[in-house]
């Protein structure tokens, strides 16, 4: 009887540990996308104001997990100059003007910067959707 109880306890611990570890691994994958953006050398007259990451079902229809990383920058450069600069550094990076705290490219849920964004300053979002472990992506309930 003791062996059965021990086996049941081990099974419960493994099941709970697996359910907790899946979101943590996916969050780490999203954090790595953010980190990758942060490591890119900034253009002249540009500062990083804030950065964030999110692993979730953020865009599109159907099942699927996205790994999103973004930086909010303030720059004296134009949107075209920033887009050209970042596209040379990273293939799928997107640069857009950021006029509000809310991140517009997210279709499901809401994601916002903490920084108060004013129309008098030139804020831009630089973002990227990265990839993660396919198994953890499929098993994370947030992607369904």
Q: In words, what does this structure look like?
A:
- With 144 residues, this protein is of the alpha+beta class.
- The protein has one domain.
- The protein is built from three helices and four strands.
- It has a four-stranded antiparallel beta sheet.
Number of domains: 1
Tell me the number of strands: 4
The N- to C-terminal Cα distance equals: 39 Å
Shape: elongated
The class by helix and strand makeup works out as alpha+beta
Order of strands, main sheet, comes to: 1-2-4-3
Order of helices and strands: HEEHEEH
Low-confidence stretches: none
Mean pLDDT: 88
Brief summary:
With 144 residues, the protein is of the alpha+beta class.
Can you lay out the helices and strands and say which pair or pack?
Layout: H1 2-38, E1 46-56, E2 66-75, H2 79-89, E3 94-97, E4 123-130, H3 134-139
Antiparallel strand pairs: 1-2, 2-4, 3-4
List descriptors.
4-stranded antiparallel sheet; about 25% strand; about 140 residues; single chain; alpha+beta
